[in-house]
Amino acid sequence: MKGHMGKILRVNLTERKISIIETKKYKQWYGGHGMGSAIFWDLCEKKDISGFDPRNVITIMSSPLTGTLVPAAAGRCEVQAVGLESYPTEWFTRTGFGGRFAPMLKYAGWDGVVIEGKADKPVWVDIRNGDVQIKDADHLWGLDAWTTQKKIWQEVREGQVFGEWATMDTRRDSGRTTQKPAVLTIGPAGENLTRVASLIHDAGNGAGEGGLGGVWGSKNLKAISVIGTGSVEVADPQELMAARMWIRDYGINVDDYKPVVGNFPFAGNPNIGVFPEGWGSRPQGCVGCHRCCRGRTETGMSNESHCMELHYYGAYDIKKHGKITQANMRAADLCQQYGINVYQLMAMIRWLTILAGKGLVGPGKMIDTDLPLEDVGEASFIEEFIRRISYKQEIGAVLAEGLARAAEKYGRLEEDLKSGAAALQYWGHPQHYDGRTEVEWGYGSILGERDVNEHDFNWCCYWTPTVCGLYGVEPPVTAKELSEIMAEKLRPYCDPMMIDYSDEGIYSEPMAKLVAWHRHYTRFWKASLCLCDFAWADFLNPNGPNNRGVTPDGEVRFFKAVTGQDLGFEESLEIGRKMWNLDRAIWILQGRHRDQEYLGEYSYQQPAVPGYTNFEAPYTMTVFEDGEWKYKSVVGRILDKTKFDEWKTRYYKLEGWDPATGWPLRRTLEEIGLKHVADELESQGKLGG
Amino acid sequence: MSNLAPPSFESATKILREVSYEERLGGFKLSATAGNIPYEFYNLESVVGFLRTDPLDALIRLANRSSVGYIDFAVLARWVKEVLSDEELAQAIQRATSLDKPYADQVVPVKRLLEQRLEQCQVATAKVDQPSTDSKLV
Ligand code: SF4
After folding, report:
1. Interchain proximity A311–B37, CB inside 8 Å
2. Half-sphere exposure of A69 toward its Cβ, with a 13 Å CA cutoff?
3. DSSP code of B7?
């Protein structure tokens, strides 16, 4: 199969040893997540270790599409290991980031990097094409993520001028580059072993969920730098160009912009950001991306940050100053420099302000701290807050454990999970979209190990109709038309009822199919082939014929052009199912059982409008009621635990898992080529049935 | 827009006060990418600062750069009446938020009402010795 470079770098930090894994050994896993899980399965002998354990194995993987012309796919990178953030179990987990690290890795000749062991002192890994060295990082330890990268850029290209040609090796045609190295690093939050630390690359690419920055810190691994001068061989360059030209009409057209309200993945707008009024910015993107969802600002603040980094502090800023100010931009930059996860920061600030409202926070109080909560919204507050957590100072020493463990330490967890003050809906991860209303998000997260953070159904079934409703405009398609589009695209099920988010629909068999489809699709196409979540899947697209997006034809067309392999879409979902089952097996060896798979308690208990707080935002979704499709507000819903349990049974049966335990059956695993996994589960008494 | 009668010093003090945890008001910042971020409000001033929508044009052109500061207006009116004891403002909010208008069209009138009341209260509390003139506040 074309697209792979043929080798995976294996770095043993304990022995300071470099070796090679041949990619073809794992070719049945295609790349990214699938390969990472399979390598972890093989190399991490004991699966139920702590994330801090030196035996923990980190995989950093590209995909066959990385570094090619496939749009919104060339720049993403998949990272896996036993994480630190999830509660109560430190699940084997995944995170991802964009930018130019993964393509640079391939241009250097590597499909991925595997990290084992623990260095006896701080180190960084220096990759220059095939030359790899483990180097002392004493001079880097203690530096923030941006300064670390600058130091490494200077060291690797010492005496050279950025932008001018540099010779990296002796090959005549491919030994030179104008690029600086791509560096993935941790900041102080990772060095100091917090559970909320991110991996940072360039100015604003953060891999935050799972707390893998702390895993790096525990291994004394400060950074990995890579510079490569090669290229990726694709099977059919002409067809790849043709596919890229074909898909151009589906993307954003700045010269002929269709004024449609909503958010559309492939056709989505460039340059996401929440900037102070009057700030100029221009789009910026990961390697090869047409969408360029990040921004570069004329002030230089918050460059490349996007999504939550630019939102988590915004409303506090607005509350304090009446508008977005530099405080919001500074908050974005600080999380990148310290290398810290903004979802946790946001949930912690909210939790503390709620408890402060109850008179429980302050000097001499239950949560004894002199943190100036009255300054929330100011840049000075967020700087102090992040600094204390990153260096484990004062209250930061407790918050560095993540909100769930911090709340537990203060004896607040049970009560605050019931009330929603600690809005941790899935495994101690902060609520992102609401699992009570948009259930595919919540169900998928609790059946997995983290906030899924996959917007496939979010933008078309929730955000677009909701925002259209708030503004009094018609959505681009009716709910019935959307159900028809979905029925065409959600192969092999092709069931329009899969997007019925009504009170009955959320516990139905079609909803089990939707969650299964979503888990399998994203495991293969997003996590393993590294298609970006902000552009794929593309169901509803105002630029497409009859508002149809490119999924599933686009995915398989690009895959074939790069790899030369004729992969049917249904077949790809089966491979995704195999990956999902391998992950499940790892979680089961870590202790997973169906009895644990419940969303945060407030999801079943908290009425939507208690007193003057409303724990749900407006939520207009597709529902099928009284024989017709409509967009309807489903706000105010709490989940029925008994019905959710019945739904889980439906889901487990659909997946071929034992409904009593949630563990896969032998025949399920064997049918997807995982006999060795079934054997291992059986030997540990954890095989379903 | 309604002309609200100026509040007395006592009423204004009550309207401007920091409310307790049980009396707090909830809202959300909505955006296309980051999820719905919940916020709690403990005074009128922070509600005024928070309440906003981008114009439709910005929403279309900027899509996921735009966001909405959302507070349920029925809940807001109830909060104003029951917690801030400002029945006149509560009624004015109800009038400004007729059901047949979309949320985005209701934000500016409601925000103006809140701003007007906030300003009145700030004036009233700045003149400590001003006699009470307001009988409409419960
Ligand atoms: S959509 Fe954004 S995050 Fe995704 S690949 Fe493009 S620039 Fe990167």
Report:
1. yes
2. 21
3. P
**Closest partner CB to B102 (pick from A315, A319, A471):** A471
| Burial class for A570, CB neighbours closer than 10 Å (0-12, 13-18, 19+) | exposed
Same structural domain, A331 and A269: yes
Report which protein residue has its CA nearest ligand 1's atom 7.
A285
> Which tokens in the block code for residue B95?
């009038």
Tell me how far apart the alpha carbons of residues B109 and B100 are, in angstroms, rounded to a whole number. 15
List strand residue ranges (DSSP E) for A328-450, in order. Answer: 424-426, 429-430
Two structure tokens written together for A545: 């014929």
Query: In percent, how much of chain A has pLDDT > 90?
Result: 81
Nearest to A613 among B26, B59, B63 (CB): B26
Contacts of A197 (CB under 8 A, 6+ apart): A186, A187, A189, A190, A211, A212, A213, A214, A216, A217, A339, A340, A341, A390
Q: Residue A14 belongs to a domain with what CATH number?
A: 3.60.9.10
Residue with CA closest to ligand 1 atom 5: A72
Q: For position A256, what pLDDT does the model report?
A: 73
Give B65-85 pLDDT, tens digit per residue: 567 888 989 889 999 999 999
Please, which residues bridge with residue B37 across strands? Answer: B29
How far is the C-alpha of B54 from the C-alpha of B8, rounded, in Å? Answer: 35
pTM comes to 0.94
Q: Does A443 reside within a domain?
A: yes
**Minimum distance, in Å, between the CA of residue B15 and any CA atom of chain A:** 16
Containing domain of residue B71, as a range? 9-121
Are the beta carbons of A273 and A324 closer than 8 angstroms? no
Mark A192-230 as b/e (b = at least 16 C-beta within 10 Å). bbbbbbbbbbbbbbbbbbbbbbbbbbbbbbbbbbbbbbb
Task: State which of A297, A320, A338 marks the end of a domain.
Answer: A338
Q: Is A318's CB within 8 Å of B52's CB?
A: yes
pLDDT of residue A398: 98
Identify the closest residue of chain A to B102 by CA–CA distance.
Answer: A472
Cβ <8 Å between B22 and A473: no
Cβ–Cβ < 8 Å for A82, A218: no
H or E stretch at A212: helix A212-218
Q: Do A86 and A140 lie in a common domain?
A: yes
The reply to whether residue B32 touches residue A467, judged by beta carbons under 8 angstroms, is: yes
**Cβ neighbours of residue A553 under 8 Å, at least 6 residues apart?**
none
The count of C-alpha atoms lying within 13 angstroms of the C-alpha of A156, restricted to the half-sphere facing its C-beta, is 33
Please check whether residue A67 is in contact with residue A47, taking contact to mean a CB–CB distance below 8 angstroms.
no
Same-domain status, A106 and A173: yes
pLDDT at A175 over 90: no
Q: Do B70 and A314 touch (CB under 8 A)?
A: no
Write the pLDDT tens digit of every residue in A137-171: 999 999 999 999 999 999 998 888 777 888 887 77
Structure confidence at residue B33 (pLDDT): 67
Candidate from A286, A305, A456, A526 with most ligand 1 atoms within 8 A of CB, to mutate: A286
Distance of CA A305 from the midpoint of ligand 1 (Å): 11
Q: Residue A540: helix, strand or coil by DSSP? A: strand
Here the tokens at position A313 are: 């502090």
Query: Average pLDDT of B24-30?
Result: 85
> Tell me, what's the ipTM?
0.84
A360 part of a folded domain: yes
Mind telling me how many Å the CA of B3 is from chain A's nearest CA? 23
Tokens at A473, concatenated: 């405009």
What is the Cα–Cα distance from B54 to B37, expressed in whole angstroms?
17
SS3 A363: coil
Of A301-305, A484-488, B33-37, the least confident? B33-37
* Residue A468 lies in domain: 429-548+590-652
